[in-house]
Specification:
By secondary structure, the protein is mostly helical. Helix 1 runs antiparallel to helix 3. The longest helix is centred in the C-terminal third of the chain and has 17 residues. The radius of gyration is 22 Å and the shape is extended. It is built from seven helices and no strands.
């Protein structure tokens, strides 16, 4: 459930909850469960979402929500109605939209497609003429 909290934090903010300036600092943040909701990254995020993450990023396993409790959490209930009310876009959505708009993905797609086509051709050593 700890991982669900970390992934949720990252998806809604685009940031890592424990990232430090160095690997040692990051490890200390993880071990001590030292994290917060940065003002700028979380200004458009609901209190329900923050509560969901807060109940998962708890050092002691017994203090975290279970999977069953997560599914019953108020943040995950009545999602269609909440989606209609909210016009806020997640930072991760904006970054993905920017990536798609730059069309870099298309170049990557063509490279992978070309590599797959090349793999289908028999090698010259297999079919001597």
């Amino acid at each position: 459930m700890w991982s669900v909290g970390v992934i949720t934090y990252m998806l809604i903010s685009g940031l890592s909850p424990f990232l430090g300036e160095t690997d040692v600092e990051t490890m200390n943040y993880i071990v001590n469960c030292n994290w917060d909701f940065g003002a700028e990254a979380f200004e458009q995020i609901s209190e329900e979402a923050k509560d969901f993450v807060s109940r998962l990023l708890i050092k002691e396993k017994c203090g975290r929500m279970s999977a069953a409790n997560c599914l019953k959490h108020e943040w995950l209930t009545d999602l269609p109605a909440k989606a209609k009310k909210s016009r806020a876009r997640l930072k991760s959505q904006l970054l993905l939209q920017r990536y798609m708009a730059q069309r870099k993905w298309k170049k990557h797609f063509y490279v992978v497609a070309a590599a797959n086509r090349l793999r289908r051709f028999p090698s010259m050593s297999e079919n001597p003429a």
